[in-house]
Amino acid sequence: MTATSSHRSMLGLPLLALFGLALLGLPRVVLHDLGLVHERTFVNLLLVVVPPVVWITVALVRRVPNPFLTLLAVGLCYGVLLAVTHQLLWDVAFDEPPTLGGNLTDLAPGVQTVVIRFFATISSVFTGVIVGVVTGLVAWALSRVRP
Question: Is residue 33 domain-resident?
Fold first, then answer.
């Protein structure tokens, strides 16, 4: 049994499929960072809702052995993609780079940038994991009630 097949049997999908599902969330990230789609629009709503619905649907249709674990893995991939995309589009997303406030205002601008980007990365990965947890729980619950 190869590493790829053991991941497939454990997660129910090949790693490439997990990554592909995670990629479904990327258009919203790119469009948002470029300022092309804004909150509270129908397009944004579709870009937010459709990828997780597809994740859940794929997990249920493919009858993965553990939907929670599978979608947690998808969410982790999504979080990493989210973090990388935000970092790559950082200068485009902000007209003026964010700065720290309060007691940290006196830090050198370069240090502030490193701190802010570090925590933005952590936040992006955490966001992806939370989306994975929520979709995983929904898929797990639906898999328990279907015949």
Answer: yes
Whether the CB-CB separation of 23 and 81 falls below 8 Å is answered with: yes
Q: How far apart are CA 8 and CA 14, in angstroms?
A: 5
Amino acid identity of residue 111, one-letter, is V
Per the domain annotation, does 2 fall within a domain?
A: no
Dump pLDDT digits (tens) for 96-111.
Answer: 889 999 989 899 999 9
The two three-digit tokens of residue 32, written as one number: 């948002």
Distances (CA, A) of 3 to 20, 62, 73: 19, 20, 16
Q: What domain range is 134 assigned to?
A: 15-145
On whether residue 51 sits in a domain, the answer given is: yes
Beta strands in 31-78 (DSSP E): none
Q: Residue with structure tokens 């129908």?
A: 42
